[in-house]
């Protein structure tokens, strides 16, 4: 039943068990695996590797596109397999190991990993493990629900293991657009000038003799964990839609807006859902992950085309979308994350980037990653790729967390992922701060007046007033700048009740 | 004597005094002026404006390329003319006014100002004041020693004042390459694929009827204030050259290295001078400011071509270079700063970006701008444009300042301009830290061992050890993270002697 998925007959003899394939991975190796936002990861080989490591310990450096599903990062962590991990993760077990200093985690802009590999600034993968719907007559690999870094991993690795996953609709073939930048010093412009341009091939071109093992699987991607919109995320969406209307009225955008990018997760997904009932038409996405909202917007006739690097759906949407792929296929493309997130393309197309902040400060600096400046949540992901070069760099968050114990707006962020220079718009359920063209003191006024939860507004205003009395372009009181975070660590609340 | 500089005869009637031209600038206007790293600024009109404001107060928003020379920012500040200023400055009087909150300073990535104007996200200039060596037969403006944002300012402004500066060698004509990106949604790739590509015109194309005044001047640019190399800057250069040799030996670069970018100032200039005695050959620059070192390298036969947005020279080199321009002209091009600093081009060409840090921290976050997190020095300039997309993002600084009262390597930077994600290499006179592919705890070890002054090494190591005991991906002790800065503010020293 898998023979029609391996269209180069000479490769049929490479079919083997996951355990046999995993045996090709040796202690100390660097391994590049498919998988991006828990979509399209290789499933059987990493599982078999973890099982083997329980008996015979080994350590590897694991590179992926982004996060893995099916608890694979958990299994690999518990089996002690991961010595180094990059460039992104979302697993709670792995997160604990990272924060304990047991796994060295290299948190990277998602567009940059393969560029650093290409420049030999990172160790090249010894072996790549790539999930596929098929292998072509030429021996090229057709990815599944994500492209991520799979193409470059397969190109750079000395050996490639392919997992043919029969659970994926073979009609995914044709969805992908594999473009690899040329080498310097003769690198040419990326010829992508419209969201729906196709500039590459539909499969990953590698010499078929590099394929050393093929494993047949039949296992779904993990369902997305996004929560449905709530009153706060709806308020955030409403503020943003009002803002977009003003931008259109001011002649700065058309009713099509610009190509939209939305980060992974509940808030960004909810904001996108909010566009269903908006007056905007003929929308497009140029994003990294395509979530439920993408398909809801297509179904509503609002979204004309979506470019991404992966598709990650909830149980609600999964069977419907992948079971009716022909309904969507001419409106979709999946690209390598280097291209979906490329600074050149993001700047050229004029992306509207909507990403989630963990916290932001008075002056518009954003922390996307570190709780109290120390403990990693997931990673910066693509937020920096988009925010730096976007037409509009928008960050969204609820104004409070943990029942009000935490304010998402603080005097000084405890870690900076996006500097004030790269942040245009901040939105909480309270309101929206438009920071464009403002000096720091002006930014603070707009943020306090529009984004802060009422329980924290006076305290933040007091901090700002006292800081301004001390002077400075970006007024701070260094003794108190991280006080709210220190309180949180010591008392469980940023401010006394 | 200026008639041959105004080659469209109908414009001769626009010649007037600086005072008359300055009278066109009215209270509340937004004004775009030429000038980048104290090169090629309009000289007479801003001076006349400051003189007038002493009698009749007025306020404007002033945009430039970068810093102005000839004390113009000082004169305008003292006359109370500046309500808003962007995107960069280096004047001590203006700096005081910014830090006092009297002038709203918008500190921007230098590549982004005109992009934000083009998108109407900043107020378009009412009037542009551009220094020129000539006006062509078509009424187009030939810039002088900088291009900066002059081209777009002239294109966006309703009215243009031209200062023809007879002190500049008319042979500067032909040096400039004016390329303006097309508008979205049909923006096309920037067709620049080699450092020496010419992709635009040699003059700024505007309808001549927009030129409302022409002022004749005869005044030099201010000389550069760079200091000669000293033992510490030589040590920094030596560390960097050793590193480049290792990169070549490892096959990651050729003996040509990559196109070099060097920030303004003494340390970066000294590092470039260090290349004169290096084994590297056929070097190129793709930078924003071309300083003495550029011409020293050309004279030494080391540098084949230099692309920049301005030329800023010391008294030592000024007459020699501009008096013998034909010797250098085929090896130089000056571009709009949007193109010299463009993320698309920086990534494509694989720039080696060398910029100066004010301080950096254990984990490789860099502060380029704010003393003790509050007081602005100059601005981020182009450092972020280059660091984010460079092949190698290098930051250099001396390990201590103020006779040892300040360590440039601190537990946590008091302000972040460049995040750990964007910083590859850190260099002080003590040594070089290669951070590529390292997790935060590994970065800290390499930084402590290689970059910190011995007087601070034990204290920083103690902080790191204690922070690691608390845990976290990026270990910090929030109570102590800014302690060194607090000490500095309170006692004048980061650590007790």
From TrEMBL, chains A, B:
GO BP, one annotated term: acetyl-CoA metabolic process
Coiled-coil features, chain-numbered ranges: none
Keywords, comma-separated and alphabetical: Transferase
Residues holding CoA: 378, 382, 402
Enzyme Commission code: 2.8.3.-
Top EC category: transferase
Domain Acetyl-CoA hydrolase/transferase N-terminal: 12-215
SUPFAM superfamilies listed in its UniProt record: NagB/RpiA/CoA transferase-like
GO molecular function: acetate CoA-transferase activity; acetyl-CoA hydrolase activity
Matches recorded under Gene3D superfamilies: 4-hydroxybutyrate coenzyme like domains, Acetyl-CoA hydrolase/transferase C-terminal domain, Glutaconate Coenzyme A-transferase
Domain Acetyl-CoA hydrolase/transferase C-terminal: 322-463
Superkingdom, natural source: Bacteria
Active site (UniProt): 288 (5-glutamyl coenzyme a thioester intermediate)
Family (UniProt): Belongs to the acetyl-CoA hydrolase/transferase family.
Protein name per the record: Succinyl-CoA:coenzyme A transferase
Organism encoding this protein: Pseudomonas fluorescens
């Amino acid at each position: 039943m898998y023979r029609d998925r391996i269209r180069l007959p000479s490769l049929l003899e490479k079919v083997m068990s996951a355990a046999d394939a995993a045996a090709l991975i040796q202690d100390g190796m660097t391994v590049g695996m498919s998988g991006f936002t828990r979509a399209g990861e290789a499933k059987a080989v990493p599982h078999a590797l973890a099982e083997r490591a329980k008996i015979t310990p080994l350590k590897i450096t694991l590179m992926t596109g982004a996060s893995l599903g099916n608890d694979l990062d958990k299994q690999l962590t518990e089996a002690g397999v991961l010595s180094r991990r990059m460039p992104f993760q979302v697993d709670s077990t792995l997160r604990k190991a990272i924060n304990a200093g047991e796994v060295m985690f290299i948190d990277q802009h998602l567009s940059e990993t393969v560029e650093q590999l290409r420049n030999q600034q990172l160790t090249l993968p010894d072996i790549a493990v790539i999930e596929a719907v098929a292998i072509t007559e030429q021996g090229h690999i057709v990815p599944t629900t994500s492209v991520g870094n799979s193409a470059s991993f397969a190109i750079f690795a000395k050996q490639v293991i392919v997992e043919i996953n029969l659970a994926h609709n073979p009609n995914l073939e044709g969805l992908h657009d594999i473009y690899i930048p040329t080498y310097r010093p003769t690198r040419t412009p990326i010829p992508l000038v419209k969201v729906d341009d196709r500039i590459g091939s539909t499969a990953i071109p590698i010499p078929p003799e590099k394929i050393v093992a093929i494993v047949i699987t039949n296992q779904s991607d993990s369902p997305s964990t996004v929560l449905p919109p709530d009153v706060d995320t709806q308020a955030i969406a409403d503020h943003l839609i009002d803002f977009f209307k003003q931008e259109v009225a001011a002649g700065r955008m058309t009713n099509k807006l610009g190509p939209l990018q939305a980060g992974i997760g509940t808030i960004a997904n909810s904001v996108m859902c909010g566009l269903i009932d908006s007056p905007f038409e003929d929308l497009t996405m140029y994003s990294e992950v395509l979530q439920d909202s993408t398909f809801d917007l297509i179904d509503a006739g609002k979204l004309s085309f979506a470019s991404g690097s992966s598709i990650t759906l909830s149980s609600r949407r999964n069977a419907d979308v992948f079971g009716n792929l022909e309904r969507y296929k001419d409106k979709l493309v999946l690209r390598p994350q280097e291209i979906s997130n490329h600074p050149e393309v993001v700047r050229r197309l004029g992306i509207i980037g909507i990403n989630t902040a963990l916290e932001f400060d008075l002056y518009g600096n954003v922390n996307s990653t570190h709780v109290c400046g120390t403990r990693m949540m997931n990673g910066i992901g693509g937020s920096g790729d988009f925010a730096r070069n976007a037409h509009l760099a928008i960050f969204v968050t609820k104004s409070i967390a943990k029942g009000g114990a935490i304010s998402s707006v603080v005097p000084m962020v405890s870690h900076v992922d996006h500097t004030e220079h790269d942040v245009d718009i901040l939105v909480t359920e309270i309101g929206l701060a438009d920071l464009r063209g403002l000096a720091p003191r002006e930014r603070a006024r707009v943020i306090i007046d529009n984004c802060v939860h009422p329980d924290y507004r006076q305290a933040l205003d007091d901090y700002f007033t006292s800081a301004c009395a001390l002077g400075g372009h970006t007024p701070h009181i260094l003794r108190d700048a991280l006080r709210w975070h220190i309180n949180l660590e010591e008392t469980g609340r940023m401010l006394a009740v």
